[in-house]
Design a protein that fits this description.
This protein is an alpha+beta fold. Helices cover 31% and strands 26% of the residues. It contains 10 helices and 15 strands. Strands 8, 9, 10, 11, 12, 13, 14 and 15 form an 8-stranded mixed sheet that branches. Strands 2-1-5-3-4 form a 5-stranded mixed sheet, sandwiched between helices. A two-stranded antiparallel ribbon has the order 6-7. Strand 6 and strand 7 form a beta hairpin. The longest helix is centred in the last third of the chain and has 24 residues. The C terminus is likely disordered. It binds FE2/S2 (inorganic) cluster (2 copies).
């Protein structure tokens, strides 16, 4: 097995794989990115086309180990891409797909054409797409769709991107010999054992910053001085023990933690496995934890960021939290923002109680449930709301304002 570090869909990935594993199998089987299809597995049909350092490449005849340091973009990574969005709409409008098997590879190649060739006519489009075979449509709808996007962009005066954004000369992927401006030979070897079996947590060994889709502001107070609370926040094992559903999967380091958090919302139970980067500033008693995790069963993934700041308040501490997250997959469909906000509030209340007990010298182990049970929390919230509502009704009857 070889440890491979590369970027897939703008996420840093570090996974071990057999040297013979091709890039298509790598993204499909190790990362669950099954939008990349395999047809001929001989570099002929184009179904497996992905972007390698921004250039369309056949992932079935590209070894994953040869992509060390490369930037790989699969069709999933083009979800928010403007040109691909236009192409998808045009494919639908022009009936450019039937079974859809060729479509991911076709879209990746078509996007490259649209970017590079603003004057492309039907003949040039047919030549440009000749490396992508479709057994269903007869190509007429595909060519019409691509041509309509090119014409629409020309009408909007959108300039072509020289060479489709290629940054390097030479064969596809040849820019991968450098990574972040550092030659591969000069890079420090990966810290992990290259013989280690694949661990999902390895997927996110490098954790980038991100812009969260949702940000929640929360705060709570504990009856202990900020210095004591800050020291406790540096003890990752203790903090994990206070967080309902959380557990560590590897010994924590001051700057990094690997762990799991179990969540159950209605019928969906998920265990997010992932890693987090830890930053702390003793001067203003603040910190930041940025993490990523995946649950394979529900095909959900999340990126999260917790910022905290400790403010002295009397003899105690006010803990100010800003929690940002982006959730995708099945859980995102059941976890409406209002529900997640309420759950987060409840979770933080439990965390604060456990933290307070721990700071007072009482173990939180008994208090922290083994699973963050969404339904239990929901019923708790409903109970609290009914009690509040009944209280309001009673005071209304008494003539209270
Ligand atoms: S599966 Fe790669 S070109 Fe056909
Ligand atoms: S739509 Fe079926 S192979 Fe192209």
């Amino acid at each position: 097995m070889s440890m491979i570090e590369l970027s897939v869909n703008r996420r840093a990935v570090r996974i071990s794989a057999e040297p013979r594993t091709n890039l298509a199998d790598f993204v499909r089987e190790k990362l669950d990115l099954t939008g990349t299809h395999l047809g001929c597995e001989h570099g002929v049909c184009g179904a497996c086309t992905v972007l390698l350092d921004g250039v369309p490449a056949r992932s079935c005849i590209t070894y994953a180990v040869a992509c060390e340091g490369a930037e790989v973009t699969t069709i999933e990574g083009l979800d928010d891409d403007g040109v691909t969005t236009e192409l998808r709409a045009a494919f639908t409008r022009e009936h450019a797909l039937q079974c859809g098997y060729c479509t991911p590879g076709m879209l990746v190649s078509a996007r490259d054409l649209v970017l590079r060739l603003p004057q492309a006519d039907e003949r040039l489009i047919r030549v440009g797409l000749s490396g992508n075979l479709c057994r269903c449509t007869g190509y007429v709808g595909i060519v019409r769709a691509v041509q309509s996007v090119i014409e629409a962009r020309r009408a909007r005066d959108i300039a072509p991107m020289p060479d489709g954004g290629r940054k390097i000369l030479g064969p596809v992927g040849s820019g991968r010999s450098t990574y972040g401006g550092v030659d591969r030979a000069e890079r420090a070897p990966p810290a992990a054992d290259s013989q280690a079996p694949f661990e999902p947590a390895d997927v996110v060994a490098l954790i980038p910053d991100f812009i969260p889709a949702t940000v929640l502001e929360q705060q709570f107070t504990v009856a202990h001085p900020p210095e004591q609370v800050f020291a406790m926040f540096g003890d990752i094992a203790a903090i994990a023990a206070c967080l309902p559903g959380a557990s560590l999967t590897a010994p924590p380091r001051p700057e990094r933690v690997e762990g799991a958090i179990r969540v159950k919302i209605g019928p969906i139970a998920a265990t997010f496995l992932g890693s987090a980067r830890i930053e702390r500033s003793a001067s203003d008693m603040s910190g930041r934890i940025i993490g990523m995790g995946n649950d394979r069963r529900s095909r959900s993934s999340t990126q999260g960021e917790i910022r905290y700041r400790l403010v002295p308040i009397g003899q105690g501490t006010r803990v100010e939290l800003s929690i940002g997250y982006t959730l995708t997959g099945m859980l995102a469909q059941v976890g409406r923002p209002g529900l997640v906000r309420d759950l987060a509030a409840r979770l933080i209340a439990e965390f604060a109680g456990n933290l307070d007990r721990r700071l007072s010298g009482t173990s939180a182990a008994d208090a922290a449930p083994a699973e963050l049970n969404g339904m239990a929390l929901v019923f708790g919230l409903l109970r609290a709301r009914v009690v509040r509502w009944l209280g309001r009704s009673a005071s209304d009857k008494d003539g209270a304002p």
